[in-house]
Amino acid sequence: MSKILVAYFSVSGVTKQVAERMAKAAGADLYEIVPEQPYTDADANWKNPFARCNKEWFKKLDVPAAGTVEHFDQYDLVLIGFPIWYGCAPVVVSSFAEKLDFTGKKVALFATSISSKMGKTAEKFKPHMNGKGELIADRRILPEESNDIIAEWVSGLK
Fold first, then answer.
1. What is the CATH T-level fold of the domain 4-157, as seen in this structure?
2. Contacts of 126 (CB under 8 A, 6+ apart)
3. What is the tens place of the pLDDT at every residue in 47-67?
C-alpha cells in the first residue's frame, strides 16, 4: 500500500479546504506549505500593483518556504495544491519543492481557481522537482466539486 502526502499552499482558505477533503478521501497525511514570511490578505491582493505578490512575481524574488516535510522519503505519491498565480504555482510552492528529493515518487498537482485554467502549470512546475520523480497528473479543482469527484480523481492516481 502506498503512502500519500497532500501538501498545499493557501492564503484565502479555499485551497486548504480542498486539500483537507482530498487528504481525507485518500487517507493521506496533510502538510501546509507556509512562506517564511506569511502572506496577509493585502499581500495577496493581485489587483493592487503594489501588493507583495506582484512585487515578488515581477521582480522574480525568492519566496522561501518555512520548514520541510519530515520523513518525506516514506511517501510514494505526493499531491501538491495551490491557487494559480500568474498562470503557475506561487513561488513559495516552487521553493518548497526545490528542497525535496522526489526520486521514486509520483507527483500530481491540483489547483484551485475559479477563472484560471491549469494551462502550462505542470510544465512550469516540473523543473522545480530537480529532474526527479514523475509528474503524473494535474487538475483544477473547483471548491464546489463533490467529495466523490475528488476521491475518484485521487483513486485514479494510485
1. Rossmann fold (3.40.50)
2. 135
3. 899 999 989 988 888 999 999
